[in-house]
Design goal:
InterPro entries: FAD-dep_OxRdtase, FAD-dependent_OxRdtase_HpnW, FAD/NAD-bd_sf. It comes from Mycolicibacterium tusciae. Residues 2-368 form the FAD dependent oxidoreductase domain. This is FAD-dependent oxidoreductase. GO terms for molecular function: oxidoreductase activity. There is one protein chain. The longest helix has 17 residues, at 56-72. The strands form 4 sheets. An 8-stranded mixed beta sheet has the order 5-6-4-14-15-16-13-17, with helices on both faces. It has helices spanning 10-21, 56-72, 90-100, 105-108, 115-121, 143-155, 200-205, 235-239, 246-254, 259-263, 296-310, 354-369, and strands spanning 2-6, 25-29, 45-46, 83-87, 110-114, 131-135, 139-140, 160-163, 168-172, 175-178, 183-184, 188-191, 210-220, 230-233, 269-272, 278-281, 317-328, 336-338, 344-348. The chain starts with a strand and ends with a helix. By secondary structure, it is of the alpha/beta class. It folds into 2 domains: 1-79 and 141-209 and 330-370, FAD/NAD(P)-binding domain (3-Layer(bba) Sandwich); 83-136 and 210-328, 2-Layer Sandwich (D-Amino Acid Oxidase, Chain A, domain 2), CATH 3.30.9.10. The chain contains 12 helices and 19 strands.
Length: 371
């Protein structure tokens, strides 16, 4: 088939790659010169540890696909580094003990480590914590490199064309008309427009059950030693559904979150990029209109938390940014799809799971659509 894809982020690119793998011809349109949304404004984490039980199988499948892609396309920068959620309080340790005892702990690669075991696994962590929840299945990719690398890989098949700085303006059947008046004819159209819920997406699919979520993040200059795993703090227990249970309920009752973290719906995630810098975040804002500036309080808080874990000052902050992603309001849905009878599909709403789940969602979509 001839497949046209609107959107150059992780969902659009993963769907393009899946279609090319299955022998189809793909034309992909991106309104910017490069993807500039949540696809590149993230940690690059393939995050197994906190996913809800209902998502675990598809998450593990996606990790398998990312690892395969990393072997085929080294520029993606896949690395099976795992993660450590560093624990500072009895309540956080209790949550870790509960999840390690569950039946899915082995699938997630969970192990509860004491302080000495944490230091052995990640010697850079010389600071304040009492234990760590290790997830050996977590991984990372280079989010700012992955899309160009995947496009180059597809272009080598001679069945893929990428149109940068090209906005889809109208749909006639499964034909896309862009902002230069060009017609992109195909047998199937996939619209993967990320956090753009209005315009063409609304015309095609109406009001979808999705919301937009804003976050703040930052990146340091290179750290002069390896951070051998991604790291998180105990606040991630409060955020990810995979940690829900009696121990988490007790943690919420007995150990209130720091005021800054609570106000900005925060957790710590930190991953070292291949160039040595640390990507650190993040906050969550759910009510629009979002501010157009970034708040300094959360950055100061996150710097303090990471420095406590490292037991040393961070390198200088190189850059800060905000981003917005699209999230289904129904927590039981991985993604929203709208399929009119004319071969047009809208794929959106994975929330902060887009980088983790992109390849597996594309595989599922391809099976559902019949590619």
């Amino acid at each position: 088939m001839r497949v046209t894809i609107v959107g150059g982020g992780i969902l659009g690119t993963a769907h393009a790659l899946e279609a090319v793998r299955r022998g189809h011809e793909v034309v992909q349109l991106e309104r910017e010169t490069e993807a500039r949304g949540a696809t590149v404004r993230n940690f690059g984490l393939v995050w197994i540890s906190g996913r809800a039980h209902a998502e675990l199988a598809v998450t593990l499948r996606s990790r398998e696909l990312w690892e395969r892609l990393g072997q085929e396309i080294p520029r993606i920068g896949f690395r099976a580094a795992g993660s450590l959620t560093l624990l500072r309080t009895p309540g956080e340790v209790a949550v870790a003990e509960e999840v390690v005892a569950r039946t899915d702990a082995q699938s997630r690669g969970f192990a509860l480590l004491d302080r000495d075991q944490v230091r052995q696994l990640n010697p850079a962590l010389r600071g304040k914590y009492v234990a760590g929840l290790h997830c050996s299945r977590d991984a990372a990719v280079e989010s700012r490199q992955a899309m160009p690398a995947m496009r180059d890989y597809m272009a080598a098949t001679d069945r893929y064309t990428f149109h940068a700085a090209t906005e889809a303006r109208a749909i006639q059947g499964s034909v896309v008309i862009d902002d230069r008046g060009r017609r992109h004819e195909g047998d199937l159209l996939l619209i993967c427009a990320g956090a753009a819920h209005s315009g063409l997406v609304r015309e095609i699919a109406g009001e979808l059950p999705v919301r937009r979520v804003r976050l703040q993040m930052m990146q340091t200059e290179p750290l002069d030693e390896p951070l051998t795993t991604a790291i998180a703090d105990g606040d991630s227990f409060r955020y990810y559904p995979g940690f829900a249970g009696d121990a988490l309920d007790a943690l919420r009752r007995n150990e209130p979150q720091d005021a800054v973290a609570d106000e900005h719906h925060m957790q710590l995630l930190c991953v070292q990029r291949l160039h040595g810098g640390l990507t650190i975040g993040d906050t969550h804002e759910y009510t629009e209109p979002f501010a157009f500036d970034v708040s300094e309080g959360p950055y100061a808080y996150l710097v303090d938390v990471v420095e406590q874990f490292l037991g040393r000052p961070l390198p200088p902050i190189r850059q800060r940014w905000a981003g917005v992603y699209s999230q289904c309001v129904d927590p039981d849905q991985l993604v929203c799809r709208s399929s009119p009878d004319d071969g047009v599909w809208v794929v959106t709403g994975p929330g902060g799971r887009g980088m983790t789940l992109g390849p597996a969602l594309a595989e599922q979509s391809a099976d559902l659509i019949g590619l």
